[in-house]
Amino acid sequence: MLSPNNTTDVPTAFIFIRIPELETLHIWISIPFCLLYLMALIGNSILLLLVRTEQSLREPQFYFLAMLALTDLGLSLSTLPTVLGTFWIGGHQIGLDACLAQMFFIHTLSSVESGILVTMAFDRLVAICSPLSYSQILTNRAICCLGGAAFIRGAVLLAPLPLFLKNFSFCRDNILSHSYCYYPDLLTLACGDITFSSAYGLVFVLCTFAVDALFIIVSYLKILTTVLRLGASDRGLRSMQTCACHLCTVLIFYLPLISLAVMHRYSHGTPPLLFATMSNAYLLLTPLLNPLVYSLKSRQIQAALQRRLWVQRVTAGE
Question: How many CB atoms lie within 10 A of CB 258?
């Protein structure tokens, strides 16, 4: 590995940082991290299995939920090796190409998840505001197009970012601020004029997360207006219950994302412990909590899970 302050060559490796001020406890901290990853992988896999096998879940809202679970699985698997390796090994290293690949998958999947949250908001908007046209609007073809558009948008807009970084030299310390590769973090280590790359990253955020958040807000304002017109009827109450899961998911996704982005761009004096905590929450909370939220709030998923467990017990008893 090249010296940290080399000003001419690209370093052969970056070093991940662990949680500052807690170095002596990293082995113990790795245990809950392993459990959190395991719960996220199992929870999202169960959701995918239920949507695939249960006839009662063959509805557009659950197809979108399956896309969300698949994206969460991808996020977890893309960060698991480096996060756990950092806690177990210590000064865990990663090559530039591998780091850029991980960065691409993390940011692309985050963009895809944001897009899927928009499609879920659209699903609720149609279901509540135009229930008679629901099956005509959200056909299987439309669902596939919406999911494919979310993926293509993320992949196409993210593709230039690794190319930008590939052409830079890195003349600062090659120590990353997180236990995974994050674009703003890598950009701060680059030499030369990073104005265009930084501006493109900002444009990407505005064209994806900002636009998606705006659409979700507008959708739920329209939903709220419709529900208020319905008053305290059974349909109005059911409508609010169906939106509760999605609203929780939106908050779980956007709050850590916005907090981490703000800290990177504006709060250079942020305590390292808070910085590390928010960076891990950004990629751990969403895959972990989404299955729990839907399992606790959705009666259809609860019923499907109970049927599946009953079948397993009966099969085991035979």
Answer: 14
